[in-house]
Design a protein that fits this description.
271 residues, 9 strands, Putative signal transduction protein
Length: 271
């Protein structure tokens, strides 16, 4: 009997696995035509300066609206795009669209674009140059958000690329700090303009986790010394905001300020 239920479970698992693979393949097929069918959209999350409460920038966040499936989160489709080789195409679309949108803003504040580790190579430089030339956005108004995983592949090459991007005048932002290795040694050696502390860290610090608070505080102290901005992500409540200020973060982002908005709403928000 036990044996039988074990076998049933194995069959069930196999079925589910099969469905997952099918589902994944279907998603991949749909994603291949998403750009030409104009199914990708950008939403923008405001970045707020904690001292003045002014909006000092926006982060571009990609969404996929598919006629059969509805809205699909980047958490679902970015990994698929990375696996099936579509992330460069999508990443270029995001970069081009975000830069073009930013030229329409009345205040010349930066737009931040998330960059997949798979886009992080020599070809990125050429792409950046052509997008800036095409859209005529000033390089100081573009920021690239990368995660610590870019350092994993080839550290020397990674630093060289970071230097080239910095030389172009484009800002580098370290995203999701606290979720990876949080290698502090990388910070001093890379020209980061700001660090974004991941919302999971903020969440546990607000929940009373002393370790998380200490790490945020330590990061803030070091960032101050290096003159790097510190952005607290995922600020949802007054309590989150107070803690971010208490710990010395200089900027914040999150639903407390606004849900990610479309390009038209951004233009109105900063008029
Ligand atoms: P991320 O870059 O760390 O972006 C922050 C995510 O947290 C966004 O989710 C944002 O909507 C969400 N968020 C912001 N404030 C709050 C808050 O107060 N509460 C909660 N619960 N969530 C908040 P989103 O848009 O689903 O993006 C998730 C991740 O997908 C991003 O994390 C980024 O890693 C990736 N992603 C988004 N757009 C792109 C893109 O254009 N290219 C690449 N390669 N990745 C992207
Ligand atoms: Mg980001
Ligand atoms: Mg983040
Ligand atoms: Mg994140």
């Amino acid at each position: 009997r036990a044996k039988e239920s074990g076998r049933d479970r194995a069959v069930l698992f196999e079925q589910r696995f099969h469905e997952d693979v099918e589902e994944r393949r279907a998603l991949e097929v749909a994603l291949r035509t998403a750009i030409e069918n104009e199914e990708l959209r950008l939403r923008y999350a405001p970045v707020v300066d904690l001292a003045t409460e002014n909006i000092v920038g926006f982060e571009a966040l990609v969404r996929w609206h598919n006629p059969d499936r509805g809205w699909i989160s980047p958490v679902t489709f970015v990994p698929v795009a990375e696996e099936c080789g579509l992330i460069r195409l999508i990443g270029d679309w995001v970069l081009r669209t975000a830069c073009a949108d930013a030229t329409q803003w009345l205040r010349p504040i930066p737009v931040a674009v998330n960059i997949s580790p798979l886009q992080w190579d020599e070809s990125l430089i050429g792409n950046l140059q052509s997008v800036l030339a095409e859209t005529r956005l000033s390089p100081e108004r573009l920021e690239l958000e990368v995660t610590e995983s870019i350092f994993l592949i080839d550290t020397a090459e990674c630093f060289a690329l970071a230097k080239q991007i910095d030389a172009l005048g484009i800002g580098l932002v370290l995203d999701d700090f606290g979720t990876g290795f949080s290698s502090l040694s990388c910070l001093g050696r890379t020209p980061f303009k700001s660090i974004k502390i991941d919302q999971s860290f903020i969440r546990s610090a607000v929940g009373g986790d002393a370790g998380s608070s200490a790490i945020i505080h330590g990061t803030v102290t070091m960032a101050r010394a290096l003159e790097i901005e510190i952005t607290a992500e995922g600020i949802e409540t007054e309590a989150d905001l107070l803690l971010a200020k208490e710990l010395g973060c200089t900027r914040a982002q999150g639903f407390y300020f606004a849900k990610p908005m479309d390009a038209e709403a951004v233009r109105q928000a900063i008029s």
